[in-house]
Amino acid sequence: MSTLAVEGLRARVGGKEVLRGVDLEVSSGKVHAVMGPNGSGKSTLAHVLMGRPGYEVPGVTVEAMLAEALPAVGAEDADVGGRLREEARRIGVDERFLGRGLNVDLSGGEKKRNEILQLGMLRPRIAVLDEVDSGLDVDALRAVSRRVEEETEERGLGVLAITHYRRLLSVLRADVVHVLVKGRVVATGGPELADELERTGYGAYGGDDQEPTADQLEEAIDAGLDGGWEERVVLDEGDRT
Ligand SMILES: Nc1ncnc2c1ncn2[C@@H]1O[C@H](COP(=O)(O)OP(=O)(O)OP(=O)(O)O)[C@@H](O)[C@H]1O
Ligand SMILES: [Mg+2]
Q1: Cβ(163) to ligand 1 under 6 A?
Q2: Phi and psi (nearest 5°) for 200?
Q3: Cα separation of 231 and 146, whole Å?
Q4: DSSP structure string for 153-171
Q5: Ligand 1 in contact with 118 (CB < 6 A)?
Q6: Which residue, judged by its Cα, is nearest atom 30 of ligand 1?
Q7: Looking at CB atoms within 10 Å, which of 73, 102, 105, 155 has the fewest?
Q8: Is the beta carbon of 103 within 6 A of some atom in ligand 1?
Q9: Cβ(36) to ligand 1 under 6 A?
Q10: 16, 49, 178, 186: which to mutate for ligand 1, most atoms within 8 A of CB?
C-alpha cells in the first residue's frame, strides 16, 4: 500500500506564488482527479510532484530509454523488447514507433500513448497524469483509460489525473475529484463534482470563470459559430497538443 500525501505544499515560480498550500492524499488503487481553471496551478503541481523529467532527450529511442530506466526503478527485465511490444499491443501503439526518437516528431496523441506505454513498463506506484486526454482521439482515449484502470485494479496503481473535461472521467472512473483554484484545493468530492463543474463552471469556487465551460465549447462547435468562440477553440487545441 502506497500513499502520496501532499500537505501544505507551496511553490513559487518566476516570482509568483503559484501553489499556496495544497493538501491531498492519493492511495494505491485509487484515481483522484484534479480539475481547475486555466492558470490555477495544476501543471505546476504535477511538475513539483514529479521533479523535472531528465529523459526527454531527442535521439533516444523509447526502447533505449526504458532499458536505462528499468534497472533504476528496480524493474529490470531480461526481455525489455518483448515486454515493450506487449505493452504497445495493449494500447494500440504501432511497433514502428518503438524505434523512433522519444517524443521527437510524434503527434500529440502519439506522445500521450507513449506516456502510457512508459507507465505500463516502468510500473510506478503513483502516476501523475497532466491532461492525458488532450489530443487523444476517442478510441485512443478509451484504450489509454482502460490501460490506466487495469493498472489500478491489477497492481494497485494510485493516479492523480489532471483534466479539464468530464469526458475523461466518463472512461477513467475517478474515486475522488479535487477542485484547484488559485493554488489551493477548494473542494473535494465524488465524481458528481465533475458533473457539477461541467454545468456551472468555477464561478462558485472563486475561479474567474471567464473561460467557456466544456458544454459551452461543444455547443459553440456544434453551432459552427465563428468569431470569439472558435478562436478560443482553436487556441485551446494548439495549447493542448
Ligand atoms: N516559469 C514560470 N514563470 C512565471 N510564471 C509561471 C511559470 N510557470 C507557471 N507560471 C504561472 O503559474 C500559474 C499556474 O500555471 P500552471 O501551468 O500550473 O496552470 P494550470 O492550472 O496547469 O493551467 P492550464 O489549465 O491552463 O493548464 C500561471 O499563472 C502561469 O502563468
Ligand atoms: Mg496545465
Answers
A1: no
A2: -110, -10
A3: 33
A4: HHH--EEEEE-S-HHHHHH
A5: no
A6: 39
A7: 105
A8: no
A9: yes
A10: 16
* Domain assignment of residue 137, given as a range: 3-238
Provide the pLDDT for residue 103. Answer: 67
Closest atom of ligand 1 to CA, residue 183: 14
pLDDT given for residue 78 in this prediction: 75
**Residue 180 Cα: closest atom of ligand 1:** 21
**Sign for the pseudo-dihedral over CA of 126, 131, 133, 134:** negative
pLDDT along the chain (241 residues), means of 10: 89 88 94 96 88 55 82 77 90 83 77 89 91 90 94 95 92 95 95 93 76 63 46 34 34
The pLDDT, as a whole number, for residue 73 is 75
Q: How many folded domains does the chain comprise?
A: 1
The closest ligand to the CA of 41 turns out to be 1
Cell of residue 205, nine digits: 469556487
16 alpha carbon – ligand 1 mean position (Å): 10
CB-based contact 179:23 (threshold 8 Å): no
pLDDT value for 33:
96
Q: What is the pLDDT of residue 94?
A: 85
Whether this prediction's pTM lies above 0.85 is answered by no
Does residue 182's CB lie within 6 angstroms of at least one atom of ligand 1? no
Q: What is the CATH number of the domain that holds 18?
A: 3.40.50.300
